[in-house]
Amino acid sequence: MTIKRALFNYILSSRYSTSLLKTGDKLKQTRIFSSQDLVDYSKVSFDANPLHLDPEYARNAGFKDIIVPGMLVASFFPRIIATHFPGAVYASQTLHFRLPVYVEEEIIGEVEATSIRVSKNKHIAKFITRCYNNGVIVLDGEAMAVLPTLCPAEV
């Protein structure tokens, strides 16, 4: 088993094939965030918000437990794109944080190609980005990436 497969569970949408990326294609991955992920993220980002690290503080603020940092959840999107298109350059992202994500919940990250154009031998793709928890959107937005090719890598 490769390291990638050990860390993340990859799902290809039924609409997605191994042919060239086209408008409407969806790429997905699942992930369960752990308490250690939050500690590691805090160390790297210097984000010591107690909502992400202190269960009592989070409960007193009205959450059921510590919440996964929204930017950590959003890191799903460039990872999904780069996994399928190594060398992709992430150009932009908008985000709408809809609902909290808690540790040990299975989250599905999805990117859906909405437009693709060629400019100077590069492929500029726009995507709708979404994260789901039990079928409910917890995070969404739009992204743009410059892809080296429209032919996805095998994952």
UniProtKB/TrEMBL annotation:
GO molecular-function term, one example from the UniProt record: (3R)-hydroxyacyl-[acyl-carrier-protein] dehydratase activity
Superkingdom classification of source: Eukaryota
Annotated signal sequence range: none
Stored CDD domains: R_hydratase
Residues in MaoC-like domain copies: 28-122
Pfam families given in the database record: MaoC_dehydratas
GO cellular component, one term: mitochondrion
GO biological process terms held by the UniProt record: fatty acid biosynthetic process
Species of origin: Deinandra increscens subsp. villosa
Protein name: MaoC-like domain-containing protein
